[in-house]
Amino acid sequence: MAEERVYDVIVVGAGIVGSYTAYHSCRAGKSTCLLEQFPLPNTRGSSHGQSRTIRSAYGDKEYYTKMMTKAFRMWRQLEELSNQTLFKQTGLLCIGQKGINYIDETATCLQKNRTPFRRLNDGQLRDTYPMLSFPQDIGGAVLDLSGGLILAGRALTAIQNQYRKLGGLLKDGERMMEIIPGKIISVKTEARLYRAKAVVLCVGPWASKILTSIGLDVSLQTQRVKVCYWKEKVKGTFSSRQFPVFSQMNAVGPYLVYGVPCEEYPELVKNTPDEDYILDRHPSWSNIVIGAGFSGHGFKLAPVVGEILSKLAIGLTPEEDLSYFRLNRFTKSHL
Ligand SMILES: Cc1cc2nc3c(=O)[nH]c(=O)nc-3n(C[C@H](O)[C@H](O)[C@H](O)COP(=O)(O)OP(=O)(O)OC[C@H]3O[C@@H](n4cnc5c(N)ncnc54)[C@H](O)[C@@H]3O)c2cc1C
Fold first, then answer.
1. CA of 123 to the centre of ligand 1 (A)
2. Do 221 and 201 form a contact (C-beta atoms < 8 A)?
3. What is the 3-state secondary structure (H, E, C) of 204-259?
4. 3-state DSSP call for residue 49?
5. 173-187, 272-286, 315-329: which has the minimum mean pLDDT?
6. CA angle, corner 219, sides to 214 and 224, nearest 5?
7. pLDDT category, 269, cuts 50, 70, 90?
């Protein structure tokens, strides 16, 4: 069955990135259809669950810190619009080993961005957080006071509701099977054929396969992430009232490990790894836009990323510097 209507924008994937992209497109006055393969809410992408960490601190990747200033503002706006708490400010403790620049870079980056922070040397770190045990080679930490937790599942539902309120169409339980490029793009799902002037692909861990089908060979690796919970020995020790989100660079081989206070389940503390984004237009069809590669850190920036993707789709120029997020840094196009 084919729809007569030609949408301004079709967004594929109703995770946090796709939902925010659809919201911004609709807000810009564009007719928008958001397609999701699973019935909502679903737990098979990356955006479900109760919490995600949020922070300004990004080591030497200052471009993310700049984007975070806007992201914090947008999360607050969503709280106001939906009239509920979506963000808990606990601070975020960035721990670094001796001999690496991570702590200095983080402090410099926060200072430049005028984000409040505290620096702790090795001794102060151990005194302030006696509930953590640190290896011998710890060189100190920076406490990013802006950091904390986003209540993920609640935030996802909130942005989808705001999108619908603006008149956006959300079709769940409808998988995109094929995308046929052109001035007007055809999107075939299991149920019908849609048409749009622009399509944004925000398909999370399904990106590699879908991008290959439109001629792009992107070296994306889908990783199953194990989330671990540790039981508190003394009840309340890791409560968000006194314990921040924490992260440690190179904690396990090259990986950053982070943990969050007991918020999801009483008395249980949580952990995972990280990498870089793709935010770009298709090299041959500029009306196909790709948002992918968010891996361990895409949630916090979704409000800004969604705005960038929707601007690329509707022909506007985002104010952010997108040179870090180009597709051609690792694609082979077969077109
Ligand atoms: C355990 C874990 C912890 C994390 N911790 C943090 C954190 O602390 N801070 C942080 O900022 N980020 C964190 N992240 C990363 C963050 O959650 C993700 O980067 C973000 O949720 C990605 O959102 P997305 O919308 O791109 O992808 P997803 O949420 O995976 O959404 C993609 C959607 O596309 C749909 N889709 C796919 N193919 C099709 C198709 N053919 N047709 C229709 N629909 C389709 C899928 O069903 C899915 O719903 C974490 C991730 C995980 C897994």
1. 38
2. no
3. HHHHHHHHHHCCEEECCCCCCCCCCCEECCCCCCCECCCCCEEEEEEEECCEEEEE
4. coil
5. 272-286
6. 105
7. low
Over the stretch 72-114, which tens digit does the pLDDT of each residue have?
999 999 999 999 999 999 999 999 888 788 889 999 999 999 9
Which pLDDT score is estimated for 234?
80
Q: In this structure, what token pair is assigned to residue 170? A: 């959300």
Residue with tokens 């949020």: 54
Contact partners, residue 3, CB within 8 Å, separation at least 6: 192, 193, 194, 195
DSSP state of 69: H
The protein residue with its alpha carbon nearest to ligand 1, atom 4, reads 296
β-pair partners for 143:
93, 118
User: Within the chain, where are the H helices?
Assistant: 16-27, 62-82, 102-112, 122-128, 152-165, 207-213, 302-314
Residue 230 confidence class, pLDDT cut points 50, 70, 90: confident
Name the burial class of residue 29, with classes exposed (0-12), middle (13-18) and buried (19+) by CB atoms within 10 angstroms of its CB. Answer: exposed
- Would you say residue 223 has pLDDT above 70? no
Q: Which amino acid is residue 238, in one-letter code?
A: F
Our measurement of the distance from residue 148's CA atom to the centroid of its chain's CA atoms, rounded to an integer in Å, reads 14
CA dihedral in degrees (304, 306, 310, 311; nearest 10)?
10
In 3D space, the residue among 184, 178, 214 whose CA is nearest the CA of residue 198 turns out to be 184
CA of 311 to the centre of ligand 1 (A): 21
CB of residue 298 inside a 6 A radius of ligand 1? yes
Quick one: pLDDT at residue 335? Answer: 46
Rounded CA gap, 134 and 319, in Å?
A: 41
